[in-house]
Amino acid sequence: MDVIETRIPDVKRIVPKRFGDARGWFSETFRADALERAGITAPFVQDNQSFSAPQGTVRGLHFQIPPQPQAKLIRVLSGAILDVAVDIRPDSPTYRQYVAVRLDAEGGEQLFIPHGFAHGFCTLTPDVMVAYKVDSYYSPAHDRGIRWNDPEIGIEWPVSEAEAVLSDKDRKAPCLSEAGKLF
After folding, report:
1. 2-178: which CATH architecture?
2. pTM above 0.90, yes or no
3. Top enzyme class of this protein (predicted)?
């Protein structure tokens, strides 16, 4: 398993090795000791899975605030996404910056998103299934979101506002500057 820093070093790409033969391939998709050697020590406690039927579905930008923030380890089981992590830690040198990584089922890459980041993705294909591990249980009282297309962040999404398929919750999320101090 290779762990690669992104332009925001706290966000990491995880590239599991695949061992193939005539039948297909085998891969270790999670290995705590390998991640720990790369500085990822999140004690994952819950697995989540989402399915998005239409291409252009945007989910996010979501996060949980202290005292129950969530680190996430994201992977795609079918289809492809543009996965995005936004630094929402006001004291961070990379505050309001983001990392965007294409993840797909064929490549098997994953993205680790630590505490203090908002997370979202856009489906690049129809029928996308995403699985992710989190290190804190879901807590409705700590669940928050910021607008997916906040102009102060300037994420280059592969869909326009008119094309994006959004939930009402995500459509009504505030911009980061309206959300107050989060971390």
Report:
1. Sandwich (2.60)
2. yes
3. isomerase
Q: What is the pLDDT of residues 12-60, one digit of tens each?
A: 999 999 999 999 999 999 999 999 999 999 999 999 999 999 999 999 9
Q: What is the DSSP letter of 170?
A: H
pLDDT in tens, 78-114: 999 999 999 999 999 999 999 999 999 999 999 999 9
How far lies 123's CA from each of 17, 75, 79, 110, 126, in Å? 24, 13, 8, 15, 7
73 sits in which H/E element: strand 72-78
Which amino acid is residue 39, in one-letter code?
G
Catalytically annotated residue among 115, 119, 132, 142: 132
Token readout for 126 is 């129809």
- 62 catalytic residue (yes or no): yes
Which residue in 62, 98, 115, 119 is the catalytic one?
Answer: 62
The yes-or-no answer on residue 95 being catalytic is no
Torsion angle defined by CA atoms of residues 85, 87, 88 and 90, in that order, rounded to the nearest 10 degrees: 180
